[in-house]
Every structure is written in structure tokens, then in C-alpha cells.
What does this fold into?
Amino acid sequence: MPHLDELKTLDGNAPHPAVNDLCHQVKSGEINRRQFLRTAALLGVTVASASTFMGSALLSDSAFAAQEQPPRQGGSLRFACAIQEIQDPMLITWIEASNLLRNSLEF
It folds into this structure.
């Protein structure tokens, strides 16, 4: 679980005393991410430090549990793209067709 000690200010001093309350508010869901980052920045906490704290504060036990489960095998992958008629691969002048052919032809 993240600690208030992880938060840094630009000058290296301890964060404003209100930052502790702000951290508790974001953990409990009273304020959203945008409000937390804005207020923390106004109180002198670096955005990088506040973002890191925010990411680790919002990771729940379910996120860690999901990482422990092995990935499932199988499934299908679908993608869509515009396909144009190709008469001769050597005469292609548009990049999309060359991207498609690059996967199946040797140049």
C-alpha cells in the first residue's frame, strides 16, 4: 500500500499537511483522479509523484489476484481493414496494401 512518504515536492520538502487528507479521499472514492492530481499539484506535489501514488493507491486486491491467474489458452483474434483489389504486388502504391502483403509475401 502506498505511503505519504512516496510523494515528493519540487523543492524536496515534506508535502503540505492537506495532502494526507487528499490521499485518504482518493482512496475512499470521495474525489476522482483528475481532482486528486489538480489539488496535489496546487499543493506542490509533483505530477509524476502524484500519478505514481494514484496508480498504486487504486490497485485493489482483485488486480493482484487477476495477475496470479495464468492466461487462458485459445480464443480468436479479429481485425478489420479496407481491402482493395491487388492485381500485382509489385505495382502497389499505397501503404495499407504493402502492410497486408508484408505478412504473407517475401520481397
User: Anything to note?
Assistant: The mean pLDDT is 75. Helices lie at 18-28, 33-42, 47-57, 61-68, 95-102.
